[in-house]
Amino acid sequence: MDVCREMRRLACRALTRTLFSDPAQARLTVEVEEAYTVLMPGMWWQMVIPVGLVHKAPLPANRRFARARVTARSLIGRMVAAYRARGAGLGDGLSLIMSAEDERGRGFTDDEVCDQIATLMIGGIPATADLLAWFFCVLSQDGTVEKELHGEADAVLGGRVPAHVDVSRLPRLGQALTETLRLYPSVSVLSCQVTRHVHLEGAALSPGDEVMFSPYCLHRDAEVFPDPEPLSPDRWLPGQVCQEQREAFIPFGSGTRKCIGDSYGMTEATLAAAVVMSRVRLAKVPGTPDPAPLLRMTLSPVPLKLTVEPRGIRDQGHQEAADGTTALRCPVHLAAD
Ligand code: HEM
C-alpha cells in the first residue's frame, strides 16, 4: 500500500465528513474529495514555481490542476447553495461557518464561505495525513513500540471501533503520536514577520523582515531534547517534559497564527491509528529501503510502501463479509467505515 496516498484519502474523507454531514449531499461530498485529490499535489508546484507562464502552459498537469480548481469551487458553491436552501443548520463544519457573524452581525458571503472551506482543506489534509504516514513508518521500524501500542489498542478497544472518549484512554498512542510529530513535524518550515526592531543572536531585524525557522531542527536540538534521533515515546510521559521542551516543541506553530485544527488533527490521528492498529498491521516489505523525508507542502516519508497484514480479525469479533473480503480490504476503508 502507498501509505502517503492512502492517509491523504483518509484525512480528506474525515475532513469532508466533518464539514459536510448532510446525507442528501453525499455525492457532492465524494466529488469534493476527488477534486482535492488532484489539487493537493499540484498546489506545491504552484507555490514553489512562482512563474505564472509555467502554470499557464497547456501541459496535462496544468490542465488537470486548473480543472480541479474550478470543479472544487463550483462543488463547494453548490453545497453552500444546498445548505442555504435547507435553512436549518446541521451542526457540522459548513453550518457553523455559514452561521458565523462578526461583531456587527455580518456573516460570510458565499465566496468567503468557499474560501474558508478551501483554507481548512489545505491546512487540514496534508498535515494530518503525513503525521499518520510517519507514525506507521516508525511503527514498521520499531517492533517494541508497535507491540506495546497494539497491546494498548486491544486492551482498551477489544476490537470495537473507538469513540471520542477513547482518545484519553489511549495515552501511549498519544505519546507515540506526539513523539512522531517531534521527529517529523508535518509542517517543517515556518515563517513570521518581524513587527518591531529586535536583535536575535547578533542579527539586527527590522519591522517587515521575514524570518524563517524550522520546527524540524528545533525538535532535534540535543540541548533541549537529549539523544534526539531515536523515537522515544517515554519523553512524553507525565512529569517528564520540562518548560524548555514545551516551548521548543511547536508542530502546530505558536502565537496568534497557531494551527486552528490542532485538537481536531490529533483526535483524528489517534482514532484513525487506533482503528488501523486494532485490525491490521502495516509491515515493512523486506529488502525495501527506508523512506526519506521529502519536503513538499508538508514533510512526507517517500517512498513508503507497507504491506497490510490482518491481526486476528476473527478473534476480535469483527463481522466478516460472506466472501471474506473484510480481512483483505485496505485499512483506510476499514477506518473510514
Ligand atoms: C497533525 C496535524 C496538523 C499539524 C501538524 C498542523 C500544523 C500547522 C502549522 C504548523 C500551521 C502554521 C502555524 C503558523 O503559521 O505559525 C498550521 C496552520 C493552519 N492549520 Fe494546521 N495542522 C494540523 C492539522 C490541521 C487540521 C486538521 C486543520 C483543519 C481542520 C488545520 C487547519 C489549519 C489552518 C486553517 C491553518 C492556518 C493557515 C493560514 O495561516 O492561513 N490544521 N497548521
Provide structural commentary:
With 337 residues, the chain is mostly helical. The strands form 4 sheets. A two-stranded antiparallel sheet has the order 1-4. Strands 2-3 form a two-stranded antiparallel sheet. β2 and β3 form a beta hairpin. The two termini are 18 Å apart. The chain is globular, with a radius of gyration of 22 Å. The chain has a single domain, classed as Cytochrome p450, CATH 1.10.630.10. 51% of the residues lie in helices and 9% in strands. α1 packs across α2 and α6 packs across α8. It binds protoporphyrin IX containing FE. The site of protoporphyrin IX containing FE has 22 residues, from α6 and α11.
* Low-confidence segments: 313-337
The total tally of domains equals 1
> What is the general shape?
globular
User: Care to count the β-strands?
Assistant: 8
Superfamily (CATH H level) name: Cytochrome P450
- SSE succession: HHHHHHHHEEEEHHHEEEEH
Instruction: Characterize the biggest β-sheet.
Output: 2 strands, antiparallel
List ligands, each type once.
protoporphyrin IX containing FE
Determine the mean pLDDT: 89
The oligomeric state of the chains shown is single chain
Distance between the termini: 18 Å
Side by side, the strands of the main sheet go: 1-4
The CATH topology comes to: Cytochrome p450
Question: Roughly how many Å is the radius of gyration?
Answer: 22 Å
